[in-house]
Amino acid sequence: PKGVINDWRKFKLESKDIDSLPLSKKEILRQMSSPHRSFSKDDKDTRERFCRKMSMQEYELIQDEQEDESCLQKYRKRCMQDMHQRLSFGPKYGYLCELQNGEQFLEAIEKERKTTTVIVHIYEDGIKGCDALNNSLTCLAAEYATVKFCKIKASNTGAGDRFSNDVLPTLLVYKGGELLSNFISISEQFNEEFFAVDVESFLNEYGLLPERELPALGNGNTDEQDVE
């Protein structure tokens, strides 16, 4: 499509090392960076000469096939990144957030977007399974950046009597301010040693995780695999 071709040509020109170009080509690039330049009706010949010159100079700037292939790979990856960004709605987190008190606990649930899943781990130091679950959630937070992963000590919630040691670790899942799931003593669902993949599978069984994030794209080095 014409729009895609023009976008590619613009990307190709912007990728040039401007400082290494002759002055004549620098001037052409400067002119091409202002595509909405207007001409008067009496200046039709000047406009036509400018357009012809721009076309010829543009061809000279993009005709190197070896360099063109490298630039094409960068262009493809930029398009993939732009597409992924457009399809990724809502804020990104990527880490396990420590909540300090009950007020922060409520804010994390009630002041979040209605489309954001909030997963809160209620824990205490020294309780079996709590450390392993925190480690697992730290890994999952990096994998599922659109999910808000939090942890808070039961004694800091302001409702410690509701979270006694025999129900820890507890995992609460919210969306739109509503409690979706409440898993008490969740470590009992796993083997004595468990990891992020086990917690991920468990949450996926209940449909509580979105599709996994696309892997980060490279910086365009030519030795990386092409993006199809």
Automatic annotation (TrEMBL):
Main location: other
GO cellular component terms given for this protein: cytosol; nucleus; photoreceptor inner segment; photoreceptor outer segment
Organism name: Geococcyx californianus
Pfam families: Phosducin (PF02114)
Protein name: Phosducin
UniProt keyword Nucleus present: yes
Family to which this protein belongs: Belongs to the phosducin family.
InterPro entries attached to this UniProt entry: Phosducin, Phosducin-like_reg, Phosducin_N_dom_sf, Phosducin_thioredoxin-like_dom, Thioredoxin-like_sf
Alphabetical keyword list: Cell projection, Cilium, Cytoplasm, Nucleus, Phosphoprotein, Sensory transduction, Vision
Compartments in which it is found: Cell projection, Cilium, Photoreceptor outer segment; Cytoplasm, Cytosol; Nucleus; Photoreceptor inner segment
An annotated GO BP: regulation of G protein-coupled receptor signaling pathway
Residue span(s) of domain Phosducin: 1-221
